Amino acid sequence: MRYEDMEYMNYEHILRSIECDLENPSRADIAKHLGLSRTTVSTITNTLISWGVVSEGKGLSVSRGRPGNPLAINNRVWKVLGASFYSSSWMFVLCDLRGKILDTHKLEVGHPTPSALVASLIEGLQYMKGLYGDHLLPAVGIGVPGVVDTKNGDILFAHDLSWKNPFPVRSIVEREVGTKVFMKNRYCLAGIAECRYANPTKERNMIYIGLGSGISCAIFVDGKLVEGDGFSAGRISHIQVDPDGKQCNCGKKGCLLTVANEWALVDMVLAGRTAGQVSGALASMSEGNIDGESVGAAADAGDTFACHCIDTLAKPLGKVIAMLVDVLNPGKIVIGGPVGYSCEYLVRKIERDLKRYPEYPPVANLRVERGRLREPGSALGAASLVIEHKLELLYPLFSSRLQDF
Ligand SMILES: [Zn+2]
């Protein structure tokens, strides 16, 4: 191994100790934790402080019995930009290196073709760069629909939007915006954000289910996202739940997507209105305003017909989640996406069905929760891809200065 590689690894390990492994450690804590000399830790820590990545508190930290100034990730210098396509709009977030959202911006996309989506993404990124360019890490994170080749930055296909051909989002954005791009599926990113920034118990085995026009899930095993050989791990929407069911865009019949997404829910309400079975807010609402969110809110308010629609959707969805629980034995299931975030009734229904036999080992300690981050969550997850790569982004910018240390 070259000296430079070893030195870079020391940077990585020290930064990880400050960010994840230890709580506000002193330099002495890090030296002991990593088995490095205090001089090496001090030199690298000084460099990270000079780059604006790490900050040193005043006063003595006595964590783990070794006093010293407490170190933390610096949230005042660098800002990070993330964007995700969510519920027919691009959501842009600006956050600090600790994942705190500082600003948001939203752009509606009319008819979401791949070209229209990318044109509007570029417009929004250029707007945000214009506002905050001087303080931004030199990359953006992007969340898109469909199955994403995260190595090449292409959307391979998105059956819920009837996109069947690969589309090179990353190369177009990198060329037009002039910045490096990290990219993943939008629901995976919402899951990453829930796992990193809304997970106070630091659960490492969890599954995030995103429920909207598409259905997807992000699976975390021992804290790591499972991507799969062809980038499609977690694609539960095309699990067949009814072999004689409706034709799906993927070519099969009766996929989960055909019976349990937002549009299936809207169709149930519209059919119920025609049959005169709907009363209350959903009966008086104009047809265009009925969406997953309004049905979820009506169910939470006790509307009998809305509860019936959610129960109908929860049945096949719950079966698929039960299979995941048997296979993966997660400690926590988080339900999000436009429908999941808006409906506590759905979350409790899925929990009741999963825990019908509460002593059954895979569910004995399982918690089922509604996602906490809501609309900006996926864009925050996109920004977190940039935060994750901050060292690799900043190291080349500052590497000439390293000779001074
Ligand atoms: Zn399908």
How does this model look, in words?
A five-stranded mixed sheet has the order 5-4-3-6-9, sandwiched between helices. Strand 4 (89-96) and strand 5 (101-108) form a beta hairpin. Helices cover 44% and strands 19% of the residues. It has helices spanning 3-21, 27-34, 38-50, 114-132, 169-177, 186-197, 256-260, 262-274, 281-284, 292-300, 304-328, 337-342, 344-354, 361-364, 377-388, 390-398, and strands at 54-56, 71-73, 79-86, 89-96, 101-108, 136-144, 147-149, 154-157, 180-185, 206-211, 215-221, 224-225, 332-336, 367-370. The longest helix has 25 residues, at 304-328. The radius of gyration is 23 Å and the shape is globular. It contains 16 helices and 14 strands. With 405 residues, it is an alpha/beta fold. The two termini are 21 Å apart. The chain has three domains: 3-74, Orthogonal Bundle (Arc Repressor Mutant, subunit A); 79-191 and 378-391, Nucleotidyltransferase, domain 5, CATH 3.30.420; 201-371, ATPase, nucleotide binding domain (Nucleotidyltransferase, domain 5, 2-Layer Sandwich), CATH 3.30.420. Zinc ion (ZN) is lined by residues 238, 248, 250, 252, 255, 257. The site of zinc ion has 6 residues, from loops.
Distance between the termini: 21 Å
Q: Give the ligands present.
A: zinc ion
What is the CATH C-level name of the largest domain? Alpha Beta
Biggest sheet descriptor: 5 strands, mixed
Label the CATH architecture of the largest domain: 2-Layer Sandwich
Classified in CATH, the superfamily of the largest domain is: ATPase, nucleotide binding domain
Strand order in space, largest sheet: 5-4-3-6-9
**And the CATH topology of the largest domain?**
Nucleotidyltransferase, domain 5
Strand content of the residues, in percent? 15-25%
Count of the separate structural domains: 3
| Net shape | globular
* Integer-rounded radius of gyration: 23 Å
Q: Count of helices?
A: 16
Classification by helices and strands: alpha/beta
Mean pLDDT: 91
Share of helix, binned: 40-55%
Strand tally = 14
The ordered string of helix (H) and strand (E) elements is HHHEEEEEHEEEHEHEEEHHHHHEHHHEHH
Low-confidence spans: pLDDT under 50, at least 5 residues? none
